[in-house]
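Work Package 3 (structural annotation) set out to generate three-dimensional models for the target panel prioritized at the project kickoff. During this period the team completed the workflow that converts sequence records into discrete structure tokens, so that structures can be stored uniformly alongside our sequence database. As a representative example, we reproduce one entry of 134 residues exactly as it appears in the project archive.
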Amino acid sequence: MAGLSSDQEDKILKALVNEAAYTNPTTWYVELNTADPTDTAATADGNSTDQTAGAVQVTSWAAVSAGATSNGNILSFDMTGATPATASHFSIWNHITTRAAANYLGSGSLTASEAFTATSTLEFAVGDLDWTVD
């Protein structure tokens, strides 16, 4: 399931009904995943990239339109030393040091799966990674 995580959906709904204030994330990191991370990141530990070495920071997002946005900077994943696999999804986090410190913000699927090897670099040009909320 692509879009916002269950946690983020709850936080936004609470803000909309004045139950709690919402604090926007100030940093975003994208990881590539070999399967759909689901709304709760239940399968995110099956990542195709390591949390600390493989996450790439998104420094800006395109203006939201029709429930979607895209990366505002080039995202380059250095896969040196990674186990060969095929990425089909991405997940978005607000922290990269440890899973315990990170909040899972949401996910999406890649338009086309990307195979990589231990010597690959996967790159997404500005606007190539779309994050849609439905």
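DSSP finds one helix and nine strands in the chain.
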